[in-house]
Every structure is written in structure tokens, then in C-alpha cells.
Write a structure and sequence with these properties.
alpha/beta, L-2-Hydroxyisocaproate Dehydrogenase, Chain A, domain 2, 2 domains, 10 helices
Length: about 325
């Protein structure tokens, strides 16, 4: 059995998201070794060389292009490979082609008996996380998706802007699908412990329903707006990858809305989607229940049913 190297990460897929994630991890100081894997070996070599030239301004690190054998002992294997979302496409439109890509990657990783954490970032991330669990042979807790960690960051950012307050003091989650059926969990949202509505009124805002609707819609449509303007999103998700890797490598037990399998939580069974979870060196170490009103619970179950229907049809 391969011993895990806690100072090593692997990235599978060197497109915009993979390369940006590699750059973010280089700057983070979390790892001393980073292997980049791509079907286009020269692309991986070019990215490794380009990022390596920044090392004199960062920390010593070995960044190189490699193969799946090089990923076997990585503490975190980050899968970004997949067809990119185009203007006008939803994340779920990518299902068939990206499930096929995920299966091919898992066919390479499975015989290598990787003991690290598999972090799925490619879209549709919930479906692909479930496909990775099914085809990797790894325990469920060690296969997670980036889920709605970025959507949640977008929500915090927009609420911070709206209220003129540091977004790091905003505590709120986007849950469910990383996509069009995602839910803003307003019932549990607060700013530094103060219920959101109360804090809004402290700042002079009283039209709660209107503001909640507009902010939730802006969060949900953020990726579409960025893709329409620059054809891809990658900086925000690269920072998301860095944040999740921090929680794993440092065994932080951080609570993040990653995508993982649910077994009875909120009445949902056998589907991967995002709920707040404790993230540490073992991957997903347990879900954290949050307060949801009846409408939010109903929307979450509808989101789960939508994903389950697609998963049953596409990932066997």
C-alpha cells in the first residue's frame, strides 16, 4: 500500500481551472511537491515550467508534469479535467462527456490504490463526485467535490458588499446542487452571530424579501455572467481548491459546504450534493445540521431528486 506524502498534491487536468489551481497552491505554501497530469503532456510541462519560474518569490517546491503513477502517493488528488461550460450551457449540460472523462481517470487511479483525498472540481461537480465514488473504489469520505464552497463565497462577498461589512464576518451557506437548483439557506444566515434580518435593519435595509431574491439570483448567475464576458471561470474556483486543501492538509476540521454523499440527512438518501460538512485529513468527517425552514427543506429535496434522476441514468 502506497504511503501518503502529506506534502504532495496532484492535479489532473491542466486547463484554466487546473493551471489556476496549481498557481494558487504554489503560492499557498501547503505543499512541497506538485505533479500536473494532462492528456496533452506538453501543456502540463509548459504550465509546470511557467509556474516554477515564480518560485524565487514564494517557497521551495518541486512542480513537474507527470503521469498517474506520480499521483499515487499524493495527499490530495484534484480532478479538474473535463469539457468546459460554454456560454448558454448549464453545468448539467456537460454530464455525458464529463462522466466519460471521469470514468477514464478513475480507471487509471483505481489500480494504484491511492490513499489520499480525491477532490473533484470538474462540472457538474455533484454528478461527477458520485461517479468518482462509484468508479474509484475509494471510501466515500475520501471522495469529495468542491460543491458550493465557491457559491457560498460569492454569497458572502455579495452580502458583505450589500451591508458594507467584511465578508469574512458573514456566515451563510449555499446548499444543494452546484447549479441552477442551488438554495441560499437564509434561515441560518447571520453576521457575526446577529441574525441576518436584524443586521440588515441595523444597516438601514428593510426590504428583506426583495434583497434576498436579488442576491440569491446574482449568486446563481455569477458563473454565467463571467462565462459570457471571458468564456471561463477559474480564479474563484482556484481559491476554492486552495481553501479545501488547507482544511485537509492542516486537519482543520473546517465546516465547508462540499459535495459528498448523503445518507438520510434532511430526508435525502444516496445522492451527492452540498451540505455543510467537517473537512479534515480524512476528507468528509461528518455533516453539520443547519436550521432550514420548510421551503428551504423542500427546495433541497427537489434539488436532490433532480440530481439523483440524472445520476441513475448517467453514471452506471
Amino acid at each position: 500500500m502506497t504511503q501518503v506524502n502529506l506534502r504532495k498534491a496532484a492535479i489532473v487536468g491542466c486547463g484554466f481551472v487546473g493551471a489556476s489551481s496549481a498557481f494558487a497552491l504554489m503560492q499557498s505554501g501547503l505543499f512541497s511537491e506538485l505533479v500536473l497530469i494532462d492528456n496533452d503532456r506538453r501543456k502540463a510541462e509548459g504550465e509546470a515550467l511557467d509556474i516554477s519560474h515564480g518560485l524565487p518569490f514564494a517557497r521551495p517546491m518541486d512542480i513537474y508534469a507527470g503521469g498517474y503513477d506520480d499521483a499515487a502517493d499524493a495527499a490530495v488528488i484534484i480532478v479538474t479535467a473535463g469539457a468546459a461550460q460554454k456560454p448558454g450551457e448549464t453545468r448539467l449540460d456537460l454530464v455525458q462527456k464529463n462522466v466519460a472523462i471521469m470514468k477514464s481517470i478513475m480507471a487509471e487511479l483505481r489500480p494504484r490504490h491511492c490513499q489520499g483525498i480525491l477532490l473533484v472540481v470538474a462540472n457538474p461537480v455533484d454528478i461527477l463526485t458520485q461517479a468518482a465514488i462509484l468508479h474509484s473504489g475509494m471510501p466515500e469520505n475520501r471522495v469529495i467535490g468542491s460543491g458550493t464552497v465557491l457559491d457560498t463565497a460569492r454569497l458572502k462577498f455579495m452580502l458583505g458588499e450589500h451591508l458594507s461589512v467584511d465578508s469574512r464576518s458573514v456566515h451563510a451557506f449555499i446548499i444543494g446542487e452546484h447549479g441552477d437548483s442551488e438554495i441560499a439557506a437564509w434561515s441560518s444566515a447571520n453576521v457575526s452571530g446577529v441574525p441576518l434580518h436584524d443586521f440588515c435593519e441595523m444597516r438601514g435595509y428593510f426590504q428583506h424579501e426583495k434583497a434576498m431574491h436579488e442576491i440569491a439570483a446574482s449568486v446563481k448567475n455569477s458563473a454565467y455572467e463571467i462565462i459570457e464576458r471571458k468564456h471561463a471561470t477559474y480564479y474563484g474556483v482556484a481559491m476554492t481548491v486552495k481553501r479545501i486543501c488547507e482544511a485537509i492538509v492542516r486537519d482543520e476540521k473546517s465546516i465547508l459546504p462540499i459535495s459528498s454523499m448523503l445518507h438520510g440527512e434532511c430526508g435525502i438518501e444516496g445522492v451527492a450534493l452540498s451540505m455543510p460538512a467537517i473537512v479534515g485529513k480524512e476528507g468528509m468527517e461528518g455533516h453539520v445540521p443547519i436550521r432550514l425552514n420548510e421551503a428551504e427543506q423542500r427546495a433541497l429535496r427537489q434539488s436532490a431528486e433532480k440530481l439523483k434522476e440524472i445520476a441513475q441514468k448517467e453514471i452506471q
